[in-house]
Write a structure and sequence with these properties.
The chain has about 50 residues and is mostly helical. The chain has a domain of about 35 residues. Helices cover about 50% and strands about 0% of the residues. The termini are far apart. The mean pLDDT is about 85. GO terms for molecular function: transmembrane transporter activity. Its main location: membrane. It is found in: Membrane.
């Protein structure tokens, strides 16, 4: 952020927040495209049967 704040502080901070917003938005889009909500096999409860 030091490079971005070397200009006018208000303009620099606006750029910092827009950059952080863009990074966060890219993460959201990546998750929406490639993320899954399926329960994995290892997370399912096993039902024990008594003999």
């Amino acid at each position: 952020s030091g490079f971005l704040l070397s200009q006018d502080p208000e303009f620099g901070w606006r750029n910092v927040f827009f950059l952080l917003f863009a990074v966060n938005l890219l993460g959201l889009l990546f998750y929406l495209i490639f993320g899954e909500a399926d329960v994995q096999e290892w997370a399912k409860e096993r039902k024990l049967t008594r003999l």
